[in-house]
Amino acid sequence: MDKLAICGGKPVCEGGLTSPAWPPVTEKTAQRLLDVYRSRKWSFNSEAEQEFQRGFAAHHNAKHGIFMSNGTTTLEAALAACGIGRGDEVIVPALTWMATAMAVHYVGATPVFVDIEPTTLCMDPAKVAEAVTDKTRAIIPVHLYGSMADLEKLQQLCDKHDLVMIEDCAHMQGGKWKGKGVGSWGKVGSFSFQQSKTMASGEGGICITNDDELADRIFCFKHIGYRFGNAQGGAQQGPPADLACHNYRSTAFEATILLEQLELIDERLATYAANLERLKKIVASIDGVRIQSPGRLATTQGCYAFVMIFDGGPLADIPRNRINEAAFAEGLPLCGTFGPVYKHILFNLPPDQYRIAGGSCGVTEGIGTERSFVMLHQWLGGDEKMIETIGQILAKLVNNADTLSKLPS
Fold first, then answer.
1. How many CB atoms lie within 10 A of CB 315?
2. Is residue 409 over pLDDT 90?
């Protein structure tokens, strides 16, 4: 049995694995950016923004796209446009980036945290059903890392209780559920283009919808009250009386960066899917290690990340930080999940401004915090040798679990 590198043995990968560079940089996009710069048409619903909005919405089977500054403002805009506000409750998963919950707070409503499924790590429809009260107005399923929330079951709950579904698709650009684009199943889909995302422009976000009225309200909300088609300084009418509008605009530069990525997204996701299947076959033979399930009816994954879950077998009782250190010494950097929103160091809402359904979220606090290891999508853009090396390192950790368990913290 090979000796662990953390104990003085030879690493599986000398010098460590390196993922492909991200975000992508091409001469084609560089020239497009130069053209935009010279055009002086940089903002205020510019031509580049309109082109990207149309293309991205169509790619996800939606009629309308409204481009914005980031994926938090898109969530806030979606909630506000749907009339969610003070006195309302919105159900969100306990495992997500805190912006999902904070956007609810920003419109004056109360986030209600529900637990996740141990397979997908997305919100558990059964827990959602238990959390609904007479104050519940909406749910925000999050398509997390490399999986999709169960849109079919969640939509059935929304229909039963007359709730609005807003999809948080920050991790799922290009994803399809039953062949139809994510974000187009709910009333609104919200996407992020922050630098680490599968489509990245540094910052940026978009709402998509098939509802004409909602599209107009979202556009007003993000564009200081202007309506679709109004030229700068040429407003023809004011915003809806119940909608306090903001300046959440993005610019032509972000839209231009994203245009070529949109052209290549299907090709990129096909590469990711092929490598993920290779990794799954390798992991299937490693005791106690599994890959996050993609979602019951998922057909194309956006693959922001892939999550490896060590919740059985020889590594089940070994602290995550010890596994991290051992993996890093072998050449494989790992990181943890977000953990429960309500325990995140940056989440500072007082307990009277949110609710934890059932009092606790055991799966999130167990599997979601201590037994899950995240690798971003860039690793899936590597070659077959990289995927094989990841598998070799995981197998080495499992084979040396007894040694790992005896190491000091």
1. 24
2. no
Q: Please check the confidence at residue 59 and state whether its pLDDT lies above 70.
A: yes
The pLDDT value recorded for residue 200 is 98
Q: Is the pTM of this model over 0.85?
A: yes
CA distances from 237 to 81, 213, 216, 335 (A): 17, 15, 12, 50
Residue 408: which pLDDT band, with cuts at 50, 70 and 90? confident
Distance of alpha carbon 332 from alpha carbon 143, whole angstroms: 25
Taking residues 36-49, report their average pLDDT.
Answer: 96
Residue type for position 217: R
**Terminal Cα-to-Cα distance of the chain (whole angstroms):** 23
Question: What percentage of residues in the chain have a pLDDT greater than 70?
Answer: 100
Give the number of residues written for the chain. 409
Residue 273 has pLDDT above 60, yes or no: yes
Amino acid at 324: N
- Residue 1, pLDDT > 70, answer no
The bridge status of strand 205-209 relative to strand 188-192 is: antiparallel
pLDDT tens by residue, 162-201: 999 999 999 999 999 999 999 999 999 999 999 999 999 9
CA separation for the pair 194, 201 (Å, rounded): 6
